[in-house]
Amino acid sequence: MALTGTREGPPLVPPGRAATLARTLGDRIAEVTARTSSPVRVDGARLLSERAAFTRRGRQGARSVGGSCRLLPTADGWAAVSCARPDDGVLLGALVEAELPADPWPAVAAWAATHTGEELAQRAVLLGVAAAPVCPPAQRPAPVEPLVPRDVAGLLVVDFSALWAGPLCAHLLGLAGARVVKVEIPGRPDGARRGDPDFYRLLHAGHRSVVLDPGTPGGRAALAALVGAADIVIEGSRPRALAGFGLDAGAAVAEGTIWVSITAGGRRSDRVGFGDDVAAGAGLVAATRADRPVFVGDAIADPLTGLTAAALALTAPADGSGVLWDLAMADVVAATLDPPDRAPSPAARRCGDRWIVESPAGPLPVARPERREVAGTAAAPGAHTTEVLRELGVPLP
Question: How confident is the model over 334-340, as a mean pLDDT?
Fold first, then answer.
């Protein structure tokens, strides 16, 4: 709630059960790891807002907490549009068919107001823009059921993901004792390295870093060797990205690997998306008294999916075979929502320096974002390339 609403107004009660699901996932992770050498105890609901505790950013209504996504009116509703990557200004210019100034938002808003959400969605997929119309909550997809719990201590996790969802999954597996190797390619480091350094360190402390160039034969061979040695692979891009590096998820799974694929809309979708636009596109928005949508939380699809991925990766088929977890962030968010309910949500009110909400159980305080203690350091890009490849017996590229 603390991250939902306008800056000037009270925090709003979001629709759905995102925090409840997150806490359930945290409890499941604790249960699976309880009798291992590295038990993991996290409050899943608190994880949804912890990045804001590091960045010290708050609710901003139709502008995301992180500032890179906006809710804009379209000809037939609303849409969430992100401008987070260095080249997104150029992509948005292609979207609206105009050369955009340093501040692209007035021109993008003007274009969106005269086009439908479907038109925006089609162009966004074509251009690789992270944008989606805000749709009413759809029927919830069947939940993905975990398999047989297992101890991951000592297992090798190869993490190709970036930003928040995949790294959170890798972080939780690392807390459970797994050996995590983060893989980046030259010239394209994890975009989260440009964000809050302490939050990045929280998710990557203790992980080893490898940088390999898939454009060279030696780099491709080393990447293949890493995947071949991995017990768990995490990827956060569309399947064609790693396929272009010569890596085959299906072949790895056939050899017994647990492959965690995190995408905006699933492996069959070409959609690009980040936590804010994916959540809003799935229908997770709150409404002000003026009936205007506002963002719920901070890129909430990311931590929800990261928690889901970790809970699944802590399980495996009983026969030791591999499995491909195809996690669409939009589906993870949709699973927390019910069809629209017209019952009014309770309003928050001030009580001293806190906000509280009245409930049948009495007044409840609105939780403030909290940060966990950061232990250790995050490695510089490629700091362990030589070390990791020597361990695998792979020639240095």
Answer: 83
